[in-house]
Amino acid sequence: MEYIIFLINIASQLISILIIAQVLLSYVMSPYHPLRQTIDRLLEPLYTPIRRLLPQTGGLDFSPVILIIVVQIVARLLTGILNTL
Predict the structure, then answer these.
(1) pTM reported for the whole predicted model
(2) pLDDT of residue 55 exceeding 90
(3) How far is 74 from 80, CA to CA, in rounded Å?
(4) Domain membership flag for residue 69
């Protein structure tokens, strides 16, 4: 059981790091760079449902912030449930 909790924590941290890296790279790297395209392809399916729910805010995209919060909440809920078993 501890192994599953460990994997959930690692996965949530990895997703959060990828989101932060994507945001930072979007300021300094071309959208056509292979590294940036790979990260975008990994995270885009996670952003899509959030972007459907959020209203348009001009040039600001709050979906990375919301996704980090959702990932952290889900990870804590899952680890909390697994700890009680």
Answers:
(1) 0.90
(2) no
(3) 10
(4) yes
